[in-house]
Design brief:
Layout: E1 2-7, H1 11-27, E2 33-38, H2 41-49, E3 57-61, H3 69-78, E4 85-89, H4 95-100, E5 105-108, H5 113-133, E6 135-139, E7 142-146, E8 153-157, E9 160-164, E10 169-173, H6 176-183, E11 189-192, E12 196-199, E13 203-207, E14 210-213, E15 218-220, H7 226-240, H8 245-253
Parallel strand pairs: 1-2, 1-3, 3-4, 4-5
Antiparallel strand pairs: 6-7, 8-9, 8-12, 9-10, 11-12, 13-14, 14-15
Amino acid sequence: MYYIALCDDEEKELDRIEGFLARYQDRKKFMEYRIRRFTDAEALLGQIRKQSYIPDLILLDIFMSGKNGMEAAAEIRKSGLFMPIVFLTTSKDHALYAYEVDAIQYLVKPVEQARFFHAMDFAMGQMEKRKESQIVLKVAGGICQFQPDDIVYCESQKNYQIVYLTNEFHKVRMTAENLWKILEKFSQFGKCGRSYILNMNRIVSVEREEIAMDNKSTIYIPRNKAAEFKKAYFSYYFEQNDGREEAFYETETLK
């Protein structure tokens, strides 16, 4: 199931695009999605800021009263969200700027159905790729979507797991075992004792019983687990560097 946000300050345009989406879904029976309409950018951004609604695709008008579509897209990108954005507008003037916010398509109104379907094919391809590598967790206040390397490490605290990103953290109500079931399919994650799951791509150094992460956190390895973790980390590091001699030298210095 995908969630698609339509944002345009004209109801007739929302009706038109929603009609296109209905016809597109008739052709793509295997694609399931739910549509949510917004008549101004602030309404959409408000839901995203609260993390109560994170769409998989945004179809966004540029010229709207209040905050325009370009400003809304820039805020969405700054928040760390990279879902596909398709602009629908009456002018070609902002086409170059659309690339700065990584929009995948720029459609000029009145949008033809064939061009819209082409844009949807491309957007669906992007969403499928993201879903394959996406981690979705229910956190306090809503739902968060992460790419694997967004996560630096996770710490178990009784019935909660604390998921640490570069500059923030989220509290997730689940067991460490269930979180590990989600993360273990991604090769960069490794367990460190009972309390920690570490992203080995985010490790800066491993020294004796301490691990330095790239968000400036320090993880203290349980003494009886240090050798086991170092072996797993060095094996991963060696594989990622294709077994090159310099990689081996680096691992030798991390003692």
